[in-house]
Amino acid sequence: MSAKAESTTTKYKASWTKWETWASSKPEITKFPVNPFQFALYISHLSSTGSKSTAELAAAAVKWVHSLAGLPSPTDNSIVKMALQGFKRQNSSPTIRKDPITPDILTKLHINHGHSSATLADLRILFVCFISYAGFLRFDDIRNISRNDCTISSDRLTIHLCKSKSDQFRQGTDVVIARTFKPTCPVLVAERYFSALGDSNNSTLPVLRRLVATKKGLTSSTKPLSYTRTREIVLDALRPIVPDVATYGLHSLRSGGASAAFNANVPPFLISKQGRWKTESARNVYFQLDNKTNLLATRNLGI
Questions:
Q1: How far apart are CA 296 and CA 292, in angstroms?
Q2: Of the chain's two ends, which shows fewer C-beta atoms within 10 Å, N or C?
């Protein structure tokens, strides 16, 4: 089972349990090994209750269980494939992606939260936004960072990610962020936050933590910050800056950094390396072209 990430196997087990529950309610259905025709009926059942990802997860779970047992997967059967295609067509909907964060938005964030009297809460907001943006980080990446994972030198911040979504074998990878020597430099943001946080350089506590109020002011707890709370504080900080905060999310930081690099003509392979994308298609959905880049193709057609 260790061939899959723990989070993946948890999802597969839950999906497999749902199949078993449905199959058990019908005496004529065989739970295991799964009959392709009967599994196609199950997919049809899901079409009235679930999303596209529900059917895909069910198929992946069934394939996984049969693989563990050394049996051929019913998902390879043409009947099941047609059922899945029909499910996707019936339940497909447009993908609405969040707007990317721009350098202008980050500059305004820094004005609001990076002043000389900035609190620990202010600096935490800047750390999340600037480091996620510059490192093309997912939330799962930044929430697992400890001070021990960060090395600061004269020209860069190096963050060692012990694990990430694209690092299936947990080999670890380094994300390098350049020191820009500007007031909005992400390395300077990290230095200010680490100083206020007070962790030792070899601390293994997550640097993204909850804050508690004391008589002396805000101080950090040892409990990590959740996705929901992180999203709340970032959107609250964006609210007075952007026209519609509902069009932004935590992923806006990762897509914003990638889009800015692409529009600045950074070579695509370097963008892939920084964002740890394994395929062009996975990377390209993060790009939002600026007006100049968007017109580049049709301005170079020779007419």
A1: 6
A2: C
Q: How far apart are the first and last CA of the chain?
A: 59
Q: What is the pLDDT of residue 101?
A: 96
The per-residue pLDDT for 244 is 96
Residue identified by tokens 């065989």 is 30
**Cα-flanking dihedrals φ and ψ of residue 59, to 5°?**
-65, -40
Nearest Cα residue to 211 out of 230, 192, 195: 230
220 Cβ neighbours under 8 A, 6+ residues apart: 120, 197, 198, 209, 210, 211, 212
Cis before 206 (ω within 30): no
pLDDT tens digits, residue range 207-256? 999 999 888 778 889 999 999 999 999 999 999 999 999 999 999 999 99
pLDDT in tens, 163-185: 766 555 456 789 999 999 999 99
Q: Which residue has the tokens 């899959």?
A: 4
Nearest one of 119, 25, 33, 123 to 72, comparing CA atoms = 33
Own/partner long-range contacts of 222-228 (Cβ < 8 Å, ≥24 apart): 224/143, 225/143, 227/139, 227/143
What is the value of pTM for the model shown?
0.74
Residue-wise over 208-225: b if at least 16 C-beta within 10 A, else e?
bbebeeeeeeeebeeeeb
The distance from CA 7 to its chain's CA centroid, rounded to whole angstroms, is 14
Which of 136, 174, 162 minimizes the C-alpha distance to 283?
136
Both tokens assigned to 232: 């709340």
What is the model's pLDDT at position 275?
85
Spell out the alpha helix ranges (H) of 161-226.
Answer: 186-197
Can you give the pLDDT at residue 129? 97
